[in-house]
Predict the structure of alpha-glucosidase.
Amino acid sequence: MLPLSRVVAVLALATAVNGASPTTSITQTYTLVPQVDAAPSLTPTIQDSTAPNPQKCPGYKASNVIENDQGLTADLTLAGPNCQAFGNDINDLLLKVEYQAKERLNVKIYPKYLSAQNTSQYILPSPIVPAPESDGKTTKSNSDLSFDWSNSPSFQFNISRTSNGELLFSTWGNVLVYEDQFLEVKTSMVPDYNVYGLAENIHDFYLSQNYTQTFWNSDAGITSGNPVDGNIYGVHPFYQETRYHSGKNSTSHGVYARNAHGQEWLLRTNSLTYRTLGGSIDFYFLSGQNEKGGSTAAETIRQYHSGCVGLPAMQLFWSLGLHQCRLGYDNLSMIEQVVENYKAANIPLEGIWTDFDMFDGYRSFINNPVSYPVDEMANWVDKLHQNNQYYVPLIWTNIYRENPTNPNDTYPPYARGAELETFIRNPASGDFYNGNNWPGFSVWGDFMLQSSYSWWANEIKTWHDQIPFDGLLSDLSEPASYCVGSCGDGKLDLNPVHVPELIPGEPLNMDYEYPEGFSVSNKSDAAAASSAAASQSSVLQTSTPFPAATTTTLGRTEPTPGVRNLTYPPYVINNVQAGHALVKGTISPDATHNDPANTTEYEMHNLFGYQSSNASYHALLEVFPGRRPFSMSRGTFAGSGRFASHWGGDNTSTWGSMFLAISHVLTHMMAGIPMFGTNACGYTHNADFDLCSRWMAMAAFFPFYRNHNIRGTIPQEPYVWSSVAEASRRAIAVRYSLLNYIYTLFYYAHTEGDTVVRALAWEFPNDETLKTTYSQFLLGPSILVTPVLTPNSDTVRGVFPGIGKGTRWYDWYTLQEVHAKPQENVTLSAPLEHINVHARGGTVFTLQEPGYTTTATRNNSFALLATLDDNQYAQGTVYFDDGVSLVPNATKIVSFTYINGTLQAVSNGTYHVSAPLANITIAGLKLQPRGVQFHYNDKMYNDTSPSLEYSNGTAYVTDLAQFTSHGAFEDNFQLTLHF
């Protein structure tokens, strides 16, 4: 093993030679965090055969039941001796059942004596995470849902539909367990149940019946990538279940469990078990029923968004463009060159982002004065803005703590926060909690305090006064800390310290992994990479610069009456961090906040990203008064979509990761975060031209579209490979032509709770064959995307749902109708630079000629595309506003219908759309039209002007711009085809 001094020398030399880190004005001291800070290794309870079975506990008995039209209340009393399965039993509980809305029923169970018997039992406050409320008019008699209960042998309850008695949730035959550090509710499930959701997970969209979803926000690991089936950045305790009924209409419903504690959901054959480490039982049951009486997954999701967690924020129009970022842009010149390279390759680039390369000593809000000087940076951003492009930097929620022995080590963001005493604390010392992150020993804002919101807003505004950025990405907001406990106590004189692992791109931490199939298409490069990886591994075996800390194995802790073990609770969740301990990789659960109750991180951990991104959102409102904030956060919780967008974090450059990106997107549509996407081409490991071509094309149909990768890997900007550049240009051309369609989807997500990307099963809810289909997806209701998800392929297979039942599909590029059998898996041609996109019949699309930026696109002429269904009918809607205002001064909605040979447009609203309407295309005609008539602005235009052409079932009407020069949709219009 190399001595520390030797490691420092090696790292310093390699930095100078390889440019692994930009020059900084702050001296970085490479000091190992002592091994005594390591966390013990634990066995997750679900893997521990010796763990007690909570269902052997006695449960509760209900008494003092008071029932009225709005619901019921009751006392619940422990029905036997204390069980203490994984905590101290709470003897007396309160039950409150409320019919809150026609489609929503709430069941709350919480301790009866919060101020006396159970002062430590934390009930999630509504001011932090809003709790759904009653509409004041729903009663048991007009609710979609019914609550039934029994005391035999102990308290148990059912939730069923009032319309047909369908049982949705049943604890019958199972006991309720309620302890100070462990709650359990177990429901029986129908055979072969179909459950979706429980974001955030890297897993199949269809959740299997042998799956455990652990919820504990975690920085899963920058070098290895997101773990499959492990807990990562978000906690969204909501699932949706669909049932198919042998040819009859399917039914769907949802369950939201409002609790922010660490928790697990155990999906097993015929049962689903909900376990948390504390808090209350606060279930919201959603009927999924719509106005027509049916119940669908889509309606269930709308009910969750609009009634439970809040409708998502409306996005800026420009955010829908392509963005580029990389950890590895070591100076401003490099990033300027990236923008120029995009332009030279004619690949539209909307936004350029910086990772923490720009920071001085890895410290948020402080530019490196050598590599990213403030004045030069500000001038460069101004030039971006002149070209209608945008800049978004990363910030960290960890705040470097100054070295008290070094008078030159000053960090104003810390000093200003310390003066307000607004940081999370270490209860053992009363001082701020000192964790370890990229800058060194660090502290974290306490967003239980208003002072933290004010301090955070001031830091963001101060930085924006220097560099006029356009939005923010909050990273490591799980929150992440790379040591165990308050490890900086007594060591602040060592600051800044190196994180206790090699940083990506440092010597001995180069990434030599490539995607599957690389050895076929790049045989010599694959061999060289394999050799380099072996050499690096050999060196690491004998000279590991940061040796793995030794750990002790800690058995499951036993409940102690009157005591809560916050750092090692008796129930061990399957935390993805090494050792499975809650104290690993984050602020310790026993750290305290500064609110009157001194709430601990045990209760607040999963809310840190939620609260800090809320602070960023409101800070940006101050920076940009009246403008929608663009705020992106890695740590999320249920309801984060009201003020934050999200991305998929540290995914890998593998075909499997690309495939699972689809389910990752779909679960976030369910979670109410529609502005979501994964890093195109992957973040960790190396992409190749095959993977990156396919991924850039697929990601063009995700809501958030960004290419981003890590230091220590090869560059993967789309212009690096000619094939990727061409695939990107083609896919972006489709995306940008559809920007108004996508923006309208966001409008309906924001106003009604709709989804932007959709599972095929949501749009075709009665086709059971689609329940596990997610190698394809829909953008809105009408754009079907079939990406290639395997290496070295030139074909792809896909289904075309609804065929045989009135639905028609058209190739986007040729407008030729797809001829397939119902539920047939069709083989489609898919050359490397092509992605299969199909338009759904029955739709009117509002298109624009794609430009280099979204601004240029918005100024280009419009076209309408009507793709007809079996009844020669189509409809569509488009929404317009200025694309930036929080509350637009003017809006416009244009509705289109095509029926009986006539396309009619009806405009409502005052927003002025200046670009003309140039063309109208109608595909799927059964007869060839003989002429055309266009009625606009009280004038009638016939046959020769406009121009009409016809080919293979498609009519092309052109030369309309001359009639609509003052704005495409300033007036209602009508186009009639004569047959």
About this structure: The first strand starts at residue 60 and ends at 68.
